[in-house]
Amino acid sequence: MKNNTLVHVGLALLRIAPSVFMLTHGYPKLMKLISGNTEFANPFGIGQAPSLFLAVVGEFICPLLIIIGFKTRWAAIPTAITMFVAAFMIHSADPFSVKEKALLFLVIFITIILLGPGKYSIDKR
Fold this sequence. Notes:
Blueprint: H1 2-35, H2 48-68, H3 72-90, H4 96-115
Helix pairs in contact: 1-2, 1-4, 2-3, 3-4
């Protein structure tokens, strides 16, 4: 029984800590969007403002949902996609040391998609 509790504590830690770290990247983008400054990378050719909006969703809105464990697997998908784009499109020509953080986040959020939030989440209440 104790091991089961440790698994759920581990899942909560895996879910919450990286999402809090992700907020530190998403919050400045949110403030940029709110201020009307939409200068941003445009990797898909949909425009800077829509690209910035999608980054805010992936790096701020969805991590908030992941932290509380609401629709966790679904919320981790945009975040993982954002990190995929960061690693393989935005930083594609950069050395590994530059894209490493995005790759680590990508692996973490894919793991959250696969394992789910655990019992210490709104999803399991």
